[in-house]
């Protein structure tokens, strides 16, 4: 035996599993195809939001939450409909995760060095049904350090375990297959890749300079999802979401290629819910990209008007920040716009300054660098955050103009394939603006804005005071061309509640465990058809923790 456990993947799920195992004195080998600078994986690049229930931060804002309400929201969002088969373990993992988020998750993270800002956001505000998709209350907790503040403590623990001789870090080792003997997984094999000092996130070479094989009592697959492989995303794209876009932006580095899931399936593991995925509709091209096709997601408040490629205002649930996949379905299943890959936000500068945030640790230096003065200036002061201001100046998808006619002309310059009519855009904006004469309205989006303003956390930090978009005092006007941006795999290797991979016969496959996105964040689909946000990093944390503790006890 080369180790007690081999972990495939140096992202957050793999690091958490390694932390639990080495803390219990187990010897671990962790293999990662990228260089040491990429330890922490996708989590490093994320905004870092975490789903917590009935937290001190919520209570300080006057937000009343409970495990019962959170489970109602999760179940209504998941809409599991394969409970006798593919969703058997997925639903159990979903329920266990909600209990974790309402219980020891926050204290456990604090024990590992994760610290939280006072901010609580309201992501996925819902599709308008009490029992349907969406969060009933704000639950999106922001840690200091954004994604780096979550992955960093576990990366530090991995380096400390390596220094103590308990963790063997094998970078530039690409797993190409599992070693299976007598029906049990007993190790991994693969290629040693040539050294490459490419900066974190930048695509590295795939030059093979050798091979390797490692044997252990158990293998943990924590290799991530398929988001960087657009061909695979299109191959898995479900009919219910219409036609996949011809062009998409990429929300993850190139090494997020889904190879590990296919390798597990080829070795006898059951991969389920392949048709479930999570891609955003508010992507913009990064004017300063790190990887090819690098997209950044706008994290919107509720006030921007959303138009399709033909300039028609989207109906509910196609409202900013409300229903990610519901909006994707609207944009991809309408035959009139199926030929186009974009949609539009139209907002005032007042909305942009209050409501536009950008995903990514590098786009939020105030939170990432624990910079209180910068946070106060950029989040509560005048003007947009520096990152948003940079996109307004340099982003190829942004148009800024004082007059609506000039704005629409600019929109047509960057999307000539679908020219917009000024009169139609103006009519829809004026109809919306007319509804602001009273504090009550029949407009579903304005109803949501008024509702959001009743939440103190939103009113103070996230939602602009209702105003007419065409009011010159709120200007200039801003339009943003939006693209689909690939992100998460919601299906994966089916696992039981200990994290053991399930084989084709429905029984655990001896020797193989799975965690994180490769396991569909637990059970092969803990989110079901939808996600409530703040649950992806949380799913890596939870599944890595469960797998590490279960293996430590079993070995």
Any overview of this molecule?
- The protein has 555 residues and is α+β, with helices and mostly antiparallel strands.
- The protein has two domains: 3-223 and 490-554, FAD/NAD(P)-binding domain, CATH 3.50.50; 279-485, Succinate dehydrogenase/fumarate reductase flavoprotein, catalytic domain (Flavocytochrome C3, Chain A, domain 1, Alpha-Beta Complex).
- It has helices spanning 12-23, 56-60, 67-78, 88-102, 105-111, 146-163, 230-236, 259-266, 324-333, 349-355, 365-368, 372-380, 386-394, 404-414, 422-434, 444-453, 456-461, 536-554, and strands at 3-8, 28-32, 50-51, 116-121, 140-143, 167-171, 173-181, 184-193, 208-221, 249-250, 271-272, 277-285, 295-299, 305-307, 342-348, 357-358, 398-401, 477-489, 492-493, 500-502, 508-514.
- Strands 1, 2, 6, 7, 8, 9, 20 and 21 form an eight-stranded mixed sheet that branches.
- A hairpin with a 2-residue loop joins strand 7 (173-181) and strand 8.
- It is globular and about 70 Å long.
- The model has no long low-confidence stretch (mean pLDDT 96).
**In total, how many beta strands?**
21
**Inertia-based shape:** globular
CA-to-CA gap between the ends?
A: 13 Å
The main β sheet shows up as: 8 strands, mixed
Low-confidence stretches: none
Counted by DSSP, the helix tally is 18
Fraction of residues in helices?
Answer: 25-40%
**CATH superfamily heading of the largest domain:** FAD/NAD(P)-binding domain
Radius of gyration: 23 Å
Structural class determined from secondary elements:
alpha+beta
Q: Class of the largest domain in CATH?
A: Alpha Beta
Strand content: 15-25%
Task: Give the rounded overall mean pLDDT.
Answer: 96
Remind me, CATH topology of the largest domain? FAD/NAD(P)-binding domain
Q: Any idea how many domains?
A: 2
CATH architecture of the largest domain: 3-Layer(bba) Sandwich
């Amino acid at each position: 035996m080369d180790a007690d456990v081999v972990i495939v993947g140096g992202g957050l799920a793999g690091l958490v599993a390694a932390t639990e195992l080495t803390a219990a004195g187990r010897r671990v080998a962790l293999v990662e195809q990228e260089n040491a600078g990429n330890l922490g994986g996708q989590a490093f690049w994320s905004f870092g939001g975490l789903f917590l229930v009935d937290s001190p931060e919520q209570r300080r804002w006057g937000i009343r939450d409970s495990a019962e309400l959170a489970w109602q929201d999760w179940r209504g969002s998941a809409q599991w409909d394969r409970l006798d088969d593919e969703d058997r373990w997925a639903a159990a993992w979903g329920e266990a995760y909600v209990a974790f988020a309402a219980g020891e998750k926050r204290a456990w993270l604090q024990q590992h060095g994760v610290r939280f800002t006072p901010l609580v956001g309201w992501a996925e505000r819902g599709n308008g049904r009490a029992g349907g998709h969406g969060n009933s209350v704000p639950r999106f907790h922001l840690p200091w350090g954004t994604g780096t503040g979550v992955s960093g403590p576990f990366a530090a623990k991995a380096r400390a375990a390596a220094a103590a001789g308990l963790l063997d870090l094998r970078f530039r080792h690409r797993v190409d297959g599992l070693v299976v003997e007598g029906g049990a997984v007993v190790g991994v094999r693969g290629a040693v890749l040539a050294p490459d000092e490419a900066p974190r996130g930048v695509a590295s070479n795939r030059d093979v300079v050798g091979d390797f094989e490692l044997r252990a009592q158990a293998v943990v697959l924590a290799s991530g999802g398929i988001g960087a492989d657009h061909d695979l995303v299109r191959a898995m794209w479900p009919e219910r979401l219409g036609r996949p876009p011809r062009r998409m932006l990429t929300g993850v580095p190139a090494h997020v290629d889904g190879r590990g899931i296919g390798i597990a399936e080829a070795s006898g593991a059951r991969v389920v819910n392949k048709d479930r995925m999570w891609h955003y509709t508010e992507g913009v091209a990064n004017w300063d990209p790190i990887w090819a096709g690098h997209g950044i997601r706008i994290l919107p408040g509720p006030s921007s008007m959303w138009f399709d490629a033909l300039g028609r205002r989207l109906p509910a649930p196609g409202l900013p920040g409300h229903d990610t996949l519901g909006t994707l379905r609207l944009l991809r299943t309408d035959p009139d716009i199926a030929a186009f890959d974009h949609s539009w936000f139209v907002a005032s500068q007042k909305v942009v300054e209050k409501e536009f945030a950008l995903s990514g640790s590098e786009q939020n230096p105030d939170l990432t660098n624990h910079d209180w003065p910068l946070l106060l200036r950029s989040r509560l002061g005048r003007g947009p955050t520096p990152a948003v201001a940079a996109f307004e100046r340099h982003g190829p998808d942004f148009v800024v103009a004082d007059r609506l006619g000039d704005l629409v002309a600019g929109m047509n310059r960057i999307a000539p394939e679908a020219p917009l009519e000024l009169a139609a855009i103006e009519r829809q904006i004026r109809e919306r603006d007319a509804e602001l004469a009273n504090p009550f309205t029949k407009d579903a989006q304005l109803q949501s804005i008024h509702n959001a303003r009743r939440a103190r956390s939103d009113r103070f930090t996230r939602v602009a005071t209702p105003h007419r978009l065409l009011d010159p005092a709120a200007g200039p006007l801003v339009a943003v061309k939006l693209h689909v941006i690939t992100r998460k795999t919601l299906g994966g290797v089916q696992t039981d509640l200990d994290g053991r991979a399930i084989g084709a016969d429905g029984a655990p496959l001896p020797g193989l465990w799975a965690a994180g996105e490769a396991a569909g964040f637990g059970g092969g689909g803990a989110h079901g058809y939808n996600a409530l946000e703040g649950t992806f990093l949380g799913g890596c944390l939870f599944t890595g923790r469960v797998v590490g503790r279960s293996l430590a006890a079993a070995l």
